[in-house]
């Protein structure tokens, strides 16, 4: 692999191999390859993804350098292309990019084939490593093939949803959607008109927070709570799982307390996200 910028770049065989390796690393296995220096270029806010990538590299014996619009020459107007080429000249092995610009990580990958690029989220485009971690979470909890999963919330603006819709059908997942807003959703098997319908059908409810930063008319406070009330998950059926890429917004998209419910896999997604990124970086480092 020469990086990962779209979820559909992974096939079932690669998923199985990466899951097996992620499980070994999660259980304390030793890395097969120490990664070379990795640059983290995050020009949008991030907690889980940024720390997870940094921690993945560090736990495998490597090191990272953080760059962003503030505190780097990107702040002076340097292009991402020039930044990438400079990192290559300094013999960096890879670059992890989060950006508000859809498609930018794929453009950068074409600059230098010796430098791997991973997309950590590009606007409302994709977030492929979140999809990997979520897939591994499900594989650890009974598997993915044949699973009925309902995406609930702001599907249109969610890069995570776009990666899941690109990857999961290839793995035999049935995807239903109860989307905020109007319109069809490419890749979905079923479109629901109420949360009750989605919940009755789904084995897994997957929450997607309102991406207000991408809305034409952002809402907040009570106005946002009122807008999202039909999509807020207050209860989980017996035998059903709850997932979300984080952050969750208690009182807006999820009831307070559900994060720590025994049926919630949300923190397990964080654990498998870290292990999955370790496995991916190892594979990229091995070439």
Distance between the termini: 6 Å
Q: How many runs of DSSP E, i.e. beta strands? A: 10
H and E string: EHEHEHEHEHEHEEHEHEH
Instruction: Please state the overall shape, judged from the principal axes of the Cα atoms.
Output: globular
Question: Short description, anyone?
Answer:
The protein is an alpha/beta fold and 287 residues long.
Architecture overview:
The chain is α/β, with parallel strands linked by helices. The chain has two domains: 139 residues, 3-Layer(aba) Sandwich (Rossmann fold), CATH 3.40.50; 123 residues, Aspartate/ornithine carbamoyltransferase (Rossmann fold, 3-Layer(aba) Sandwich), CATH 3.40.50.1370. The chain has nine helices and ten strands. Strand 6, helix 6 and strand 7 form a beta-alpha-beta unit. The mean pLDDT is 95.
Structural key phrases:
alpha/beta, 9 helices, Rossmann fold, 287 residues, single chain
List strands and helices in order, with pairings.
Elements: E1 3-4, H1 12-26, E2 38-42, H2 48-59, E3 64-67, H3 80-89, E4 94-99, H4 104-109, E5 116-122, H5 128-139, E6 148-153, H6 159-167, E7 174-179, E8 190-191, H7 195-201, E9 204-208, H8 221-228, E10 241-243, H9 266-286
Parallel strand pairs: 1-5, 2-3, 2-4, 4-5, 6-7, 6-9, 7-8, 9-10
Helix pairs in contact: 1-9, 2-9, 5-9
